Amino acid sequence: IVTGLGEVSAAGVRSRGLTLAPLAGAQVVAPAAGRIAFAGPFRDYGAIVIIDHGGGWTSLVAGLGSVSVRIGEAVGQGAPIGQAQRGEAPRVTVELRRRDRAVDMTALIG
Description:
Number of strands: 9
Shape: globular
Mean pLDDT: 90
Structural class: mainly beta
Number of helices: 0
Largest sheet: 9 strands, antiparallel
Low-confidence stretches: none
Distance between the termini: 14 Å
């Protein structure tokens, strides 16, 4: 884990999730089951995947080099959703949200 929820970056931006340092090109998997609400490039975040888990819960996975899922597709927990970027020092950020508010997921990681 490179950055935790609420930490402030050098650019002054407060983190809304956990930023991980995976191996370049590593497979990235769904943190929980759900339906893909968005999959593709977004601003300067690289490719992102948003998973709707139902009941107001969503996960956002940003910083992907590629995605392997499509909007509307159902995924299970641990299902491949893409790959980390290639190159030096890739970063993948995972946000858990409840009704569009960031939730600290550290207690859920075991």
